[in-house]
């Protein structure tokens, strides 16, 4: 059975610049440096795969499904990870809510059972919240 979790938060920052950061896909380690040590994109059999090494040493492999500049949606599946779940499909939606404010909605659908449902939900909620806060901090301190 599929389950879902969502974090939505408004942050300071111009929507166009926030979207540019997210849509690049391969610089997660720069804006989410509290959790991600390194990240790179590679083309594998015509698909864009993101390889991330986390600060705790765990590794993630993610397949980029969609990057929609028009809808400001970034969708990916996490197909190798340490979580007790499968079929993790994640979307980040970026929306303009003011000249210097951006709404970020980070959603994941996943398959898990029993006690693992709440474990995965809590981990994803914490990760998404930390990621959004880290993204805001990174943009507020950038000099370029």
Strand coverage percent = over 45%
Helix content: 25-40%
How far apart, in Å, are the first and last alpha carbons?
Answer: 45 Å
Low-confidence stretches: none
Query: How many separate helices?
Result: 3
User: What do we call the CATH homologous superfamily?
Assistant: START domain
Radius of gyration, Cα only, in angstroms? 15 Å
Q: What is the strand tally? A: 7
Shape: globular
Give helix and strand order, one letter per element, not per position: EHHEEEEEEH
Provide the CATH architecture.
2-Layer Sandwich
Please write the CATH class name: Alpha Beta
Mean pLDDT: 95
Biggest β-sheet description: 7 strands, antiparallel
Folded structure, characterized:
The structure is a single chain. By secondary structure, this protein is of the alpha+beta class. The chain is built from 3 helices and 7 strands, in the order E-H-H-E-E-E-E-E-E-H. It has helices at residues 15-24, 28-31, 116-141; strands at residues 2-12, 36-44, 47-54, 59-68, 73-80, 86-98, 101-111. Strands 1-7-6-5-4-3-2 form a 7-stranded antiparallel sheet. A hairpin with a 2-residue loop joins strand 6 and strand 7. It is globular, with a radius of gyration of 15 Å. The mean pLDDT is 95.
